[in-house]
Amino acid sequence: MPPIARRGLALVVSAPSGAGKTTLCHRLLNAEPDIVLSVSVTTRPARAGEQDGVDYVYLSQDEFQEMRAAGDLLEWARVFENYYGTPRQPVEERLSQGKDVLFDIDWQGAQQLSEKLTQDLVRVFILPPSANVLKDRLKRRGLDSPEVVSTRLSRASDEISHWAQYDYVIVNESLDISADQLRAILVAERARRERRIGLARFVRELQGDL
Ligand code: 5GP
Fold first, then answer.
1. What percent of the chain has a predicted confidence (pLDDT) above 90?
2. How far apart are CA 134 and CA 16, in angstroms?
3. Which of 37, 106, 141 to mutate to test the pocket of ligand 1 (most atoms within 8 A of CB)?
4. Which residue has its alpha carbon closest to ligand 1 atom 14?
5. Which residues contact 114 (CB under 8 A, 6 or more apart)?
6. pTM for the full predicted model
7. CB 36 within 8 A of CB 188
8. What is the pLDDT of residues 122-171, one digit of tens each?
C-alpha cells in the first residue's frame, strides 16, 4: 500500500540555554530518520566540536545581512550579540514534499514561524526541572566565560517567560523520558487528520472495496 499523503510538519523546539534542547533534538534525529534539522546560519563563531554546515553555517555580518535583505531567511533573530536565521529554501522545499523539518530556534523564531507556517507548525518548549539544575548545567558546560554564563542565566529567565506560546511543554528531568516524549509528540502530530491530505481518497477507496 502506498503511504497516505500528508502535509510536512515543522517541529520547533525552544528552551533556555542549558535545558538539554540540543541533546534532545539530536536524539530525535537519530531515532526518526524522516525528520531533518533545519541548519541555521549564524554570525557567532563556531564552538569547539561544531562543524560548519552541520551545526550551523557560519557567516560574516555582511553575508548574514545580505541573506536577510534578499529575503532568503524564513525567520531571523538577534540572540546575545549574534544573529541567527533559518534559510528559507530548504525548509519550503521539504515541507512542500510532505516531509518534516526540526527547528532548534529561540522564541523569536518560533513566533515568526507561527505567522508563516500556521497549521504546519508544532511548537515544543523544554524546561529544566529546577533553577539549580539549569545553573549546574550552564556551569558544567564550561564552553563559555563566567560573564557569558551569567548573561545566559538572565536570558534563560527571558526565554522561559515565553513558555505559554508553545503547544507542548517538556520538563527535562530525565533525558530518556524527555526524548520519548518528544518522539511521541512527533508521532502523534504526524497522525493528525488535517495533515493527512490523502485520507479522504484512501477512505473513499476503502469504502468502494467494501
Ligand atoms: P547557540 O549559540 O547556543 O547555539 O544558540 C543560541 C540560541 O539561538 C538558542 O536558543 C538557539 O535555539 C537559537 N537559535 C539557533 N538558530 C536559530 C535561528 O535560526 N533562529 C532563531 N530565531 N534562533 C536560533
1. 85
2. 9
3. 106
4. 105
5. 121, 123, 165
6. 0.94
7. no
8. 999 999 999 999 988 887 666 678 887 888 888 899 999 999 999 999 99
How far, in Å, CA of 126 to CA of 13, rounded? 7
Q: Would the CB of 108 count as within 6 Å of ligand 1? A: yes
The protein residue with its alpha carbon nearest to ligand 1, atom 24, reads 105
- Mean pLDDT, residues 41-54: 95
* Torsion 76-78-79-81 (CA) sign: positive
- For ligand 1, the distance from its centroid to the CA atom of residue 201, given in whole angstroms, is 40
Strands across the sheet with 82-87, in order? 57-58, 41-42, 82-87, 73-79
Tell me the CA–centroid distance for residue 14 and ligand 1, in Å. 9
Q: Which residue has the cell 563563531?
A: 45
Q: Which of 12, 6, 5, 4 is nearest to 117 (CA)?
A: 12
Ligand 1 within 6 A of CB of 85: yes
* 3-class SS of residue 73: strand
Ligand 1 pocket, residue 105 CB under 6 Å = yes
β-bridge mates for residue 125, sequence order: 14, 169
